């Protein structure tokens, strides 16, 4: 009875500790109203009327952007009954189109050209409770492509900096995670521009890639991103981990089945001539735990597990030239030399404050967690001793 009670107590306290990593902290970074959109809000007049945004807007060659009206959603569902079956806008949400039909618009990256390769990507970070997850990736010497939400970077700058420090490949995932085709041109531009701006401010890099939330993109949105020198990255394998309970309706077993299917594909030759770009999330503890659970099986089923920068042979994924990634050929050469390194970023970069890491004015999320972990350990020991004494007396 005592051991059972203690077991559940440990589980409970562990959950509390994990949540405590999300305690807000004060960093050296400041976000003055008007310089960025409101956190987790679709950009609006608070930035549209600023001189900065007007200058960015005027730099866009709008004649190169297709005149496509925003799509319409009602109660979370697209109204597509009147949309032409020919899919003239190359609307991914309609028919998974990845090859634009508008002239001059670049195609999406949606798969790795290298065979037997798993392009490892995680959306929706940085996550305030992902310390253990990033530890896991580091312990496995594994780099990934991280698609960061601008509002999360503003909320959790230390976690964003760690991702870059650990050598992960950083891309844009919009400011507020909207369905991009439903937005106006100004809103699309602001979602992308201010996410790139906050990443530059906090991390010192300017990403050249982005991923539309829900994959929702058409030629108008692609063209605006292209004007900002950002390539669109989609996927050809979707784990649906974000739909897992309690956030969604999928059971853990359903997501396990999806991952098992991916493992089978890696072993049966499905990707013998080209590879996969897989969609996973660092959305919450559930999705990150699922990623850790299936990582060994994915690693065993695919010959190479790499960031998309490597599988696409993009050696300089940022506007800054002092930060480089291994190409696929360089990764193969490194592997053949029996090196323990894996593809990832190297170089130096810093934000406008010269910060290579964020120095907090108060306790950061990690340090808070450390103290709580120590206190919790002591509490567990005391409770265990108390239970022991009670049963001895009985």
TrEMBL record:
Pfam families, per database record: Polysacc_deac_1
Record InterPro entries: Glyco_hydro/deAcase_b/a-brl, NODB_dom, Polysacc_deacetylase_ArnD
Gene Ontology cellular-component terms listed: plasma membrane; side of membrane
Catalysis: reaction(s): [(1->4)-N-acetyl-beta-D-glucosaminyl](n) + n H2O = chitosan + n acetate
Molecular function GO labels: chitin deacetylase activity; metal ion binding
Membrane topology term: Lipid-anchor; GPI-anchor
Main EC class the enzyme belongs to: hydrolase
Gene3D superfamilies in UniProt: Glycoside hydrolase/deacetylase
Coiled coil: none
UniProt keyword Glycosyltransferase, yes or no: no
Keyword line: Carbohydrate metabolism, Cell membrane, Cell wall, Cell wall biogenesis/degradation, Chitin degradation, Cobalt, Glycoprotein, GPI-anchor, Hydrolase, Lipoprotein, Membrane, Metal-binding, Polysaccharide degradation, Secreted, Signal, Transmembrane, Transmembrane helix
Protein name: chitin deacetylase
Phylogenetic lineage: Eukaryota, Fungi, Fungi incertae sedis, Mucoromycota, Glomeromycotina
